[in-house]
User: Fold these one by one.
Assistant:
Number 1:
Amino acid sequence: MKKYILLPAMMVAAMLSTTAVKAQEDVNPLLKYVNKENDLKASIGGRMFADVAYYHTEWTPMKSGAAITDARIHASLTYGKLFIYADFGFGNGEFSQKNLFAQYTFKESLKGIHLVKAGYYNEPSSMSMMTSSYNYHFISRPSVSQALDPGRSLGATYKFFNKHFFADQGIFSQLKYNEQEEGYQGFSLSGRWLWKPINDNNITLQFGTGLRYQRINGGEVYQDGVYKTNMHVAANMQTYVDETTKFLSCDLPWAKDAFTISPEFLFKSDRVFARGEFIWKKVWKDRDDQTLFESQLGGQQSWTNVEGWRSGNKLRPTIMNGGYVEFGYLLCGKAYTYDDEYGLLKGMGDKGGLELVARYSCTNLTDITDGDIFLIGNHKFYPNGKVVDYPYSSSIDGGTMHSVTLGLNYSFNQYIKIMGEYQYANLSNVYFPDDENFHQLQLRVMFAF
């Protein structure tokens, strides 16, 4: 009797394992090799995105036009429970390394599936960044995810998932090639955990959160052997024909530790989806005040003690945040589908699929101390409403943007899709006082094989 119970269970686990392999590839590859005798499978595929965009701005122009925004070649190899995947990009005329990892399914049971993974891939702390751009329902990810969530890193993770629970966590290096100028490499701890109270063939409802701690160690020599670390935070205007990040960007000198939390939700039925995330990030800073104080002694206007120097060169944490909500309605085509292994909504890819989507997003990279003023001529903040040399202001304004996006997507089949969007964005940034309202129209044609 026991074998009749275990056999269906192992078949389900095997199906989930097969889905896990397919989830890494945008479509079922056209070029495949299967050796059943040795339990070996191999495939080669690729994709290309061609975008056209028109931008209307009030002052600072953006470059309307067309571009090949993404072009990739990928290969995969499955040998028993081992899965190896490599993905390289050629978008915008430049070669770039995308995904390169090995994954092993080491335990399958009635309770769920266990995986280990190592290589170069997205850190598991964000629903938006974990979703493949081919499976995305918008031309661009929300700017808040681009700015505050991590992308690909070199690391290793352990994952467990079943019908109702999902846990993916691991450790990653700060830079994939250890290319910091000085110091030793930093690291991050990332994870994403989900609970799905409802998850069947028709409806999925999930709640969860991502957490990430980042330690920044490498940097550059500032003076007298002091290492100066920096965190650059930036996002484009949710478009890739002109990928400028000047409207939403800032540098956080002396950044040392960063913590990010990103609660999320997802609802999916056959014809409707709704999902969203809120992202909150705090960055703590640290520097060698004693050495920097001693290096300025004897100068024309030197500080006489370290406490005075520190009060004139204030350093405080920076907080940034934002979020988005997205909605979709499938007008034609088969039902929306869900990926248990990644805890994600899959893309629309059936023949004749037509969907209407909408998104609101907010990106806040501004942390200004009460009472500080900004002089555009000097490009500096001054504390307490006074234009003085000291103390330095610790205010940051990387820009705040609210945007609304409406889109209509059509899939000829799983290999060819077309996406169209209109977006209105409202910007507030002291460095661009004359730029407030942005309008853009975008069209994307997508091929995959």
Number 2:
Amino acid sequence: MRTLLLTALTVAVVLGVTFAVALRAGKQAVIDVTWGLGFVAIAITAFVSTLGHGDPVRRWLALLLTAAWGLRLAGHIFARSRGKGEDPRYEALLARAPGNPNTYALQRIYLPQGIIMWFVSLPVQVAMFVEGGIGWVLWLGVAVWAVGLFFETVGDLQLTRFRDEPSNKGKVLDTGLWHYTRHPNYFGDACVWTGLFLVAASAWPGVLTVLSPAVMVWNLYAGTGKKLLEKDIGERRPQYADYVRRTSGFFPWPPKKRAVG
């Protein structure tokens, strides 16, 4: 219980600092960088607060796998957003603020993300103190995590290179991992958190945190991930409709043949 309270306090501190930085920078998109860093802070807090408990192998895996994922993601988003203005999603949201936009941001951006961050990270927190079960389930979790990090890292790299080429403006990336799924980064994220769940679930009561990866996967597939991103992309890129028709929306799968004519 002490660990859960400390990690909740960690989330509050991380988001409080993020809000202060966002006010100074003049854009709430700063929180996107903090998303990955927040999980790293939670993992460190849980690791330190449970010293002397749990299995060293599982504890170190939970810490290092979370840190590798979170730091990579934060670095990628920072590089992508550096020098740019507010994210259009947050602009649209804050434009509907009935009162003070900053108060509205705390209510509609920071509070929900803080709750989700803490809840999704429960497998990492629990993995720090559970004992036993260092077997195939744990190593399966590491393998699933590795697949996820590969899809995220390579998918983001391919998209960055595609966008950096001026001749690709207005076009749709459908090569590399994007040939098999429209969202390799979201699929990778889902695998990462499923893998971390398996690391925790390899010993009781880690399996009880199953709702945490379920929330993350649902959010990526039907919440603020895939569904929101594709809401109006067809209007901006006419070729996207054919891409949707022939390419899997989430799980990697061989594409259908292109439409003729």
Number 3:
Amino acid sequence: MIDGAHVVLYSRDVEADRAFLRDVLGWGHVDAGHGWLIFRAPPTEVAFHPTDGEPSHELMLMCDDLDETMAELAARDVEFTRAVEEARWGRVTALRLPGGGEVSLYQPRHPRP
């Protein structure tokens, strides 16, 4: 049976983004060979949202306290690209990855599985 998921993030600077996950976020990892790092992600949930446009995917990192997490990441020179939005389902912002990508960060208000 399925026992995991593998998320692929495309980047303009994979070394910088790998260093970000390893050094800034402190995620454990293995070297799959030749410096190709694969990271252990925190527990994950999957949800489907309706769209009238093309189907797409989004990676959103979750935390228990958005203000505290943002302060910790800001102290590590992480750039936030969006102001905090107060949504019905949670509080959300986004951060810039060194390779140019953006990842959402949110504190859910919904029950977590």
